[in-house]
Fold this protein.
Amino acid sequence: MKKENFKQGITDGIPIALGYLAVSFTFGMMAVQGGLTIWQAVLISLTNLTSAGQFAGLDIIIAGGSLWEMALTQLIINLRYCLMSFSLSQKLRRDETWGHRYGVAFGVTDEIFGVSASKPGKVSAFYNYGVMSVAIPGWTIGTLLGAISGSILPDFIMSALGVAIYGMFLAVIIPPSKKNKAVLLVVLGAMAVSALFAWVPVLSKVSSGFVIIITTILVAGLAAWLCPVDEENAKEEAHEA
């Protein structure tokens, strides 16, 4: 049974690994451009597994930000993983040991959580191990390839490839923005606040890490206040899923 769950996890994890390969390639490339060594970039990806957190953290490292700034930024950006872990802990089989639960916790990402949560019934830790066994190498190898490319390719090619990360984020935010007015307002609000910090002389002196922290708390807080989720609709959507 464990072997079957592990094999199914590998199968479900292959598309995730391919997506990770493309995104982490950009991270590796940007890390080397920012002054990190190839192996520093690879080590970050191997031990973090968080795209938004890593890109934000990279900006702070390059800017020479403080450890407090880094810690707060990662807390805000990655707080969702706590909620995912709470949910996944109820999804795992009751007989899973604490050791297995800690092992599964290391690999909680948006995509791995998504495939695990969508499985009918309880999920074995070995299913998650199967997904992680291809997803984590995909993220790490992509970083390695991007870092190597960043150290040997000409600057004009690197500049063109650097646009890829913005294309990735557009692909993520546009579909839900079309379906949900609240999501669209959050996206536009975040763009507006970020623009203020970039163009207003006084605000432009705020470091990138604190810009992320302030923007996230401010925009997300206003969205939660102005556009609360209707409990009845949320229950119906969860039931349909």
User: Anything to note?
Assistant: The chain is about 80% helix and 0% strand. The two ends are 26 Å apart (CA to CA). Residues 237-241 have pLDDT under 50 and may be disordered. The first helix runs from residue 2 to 33.
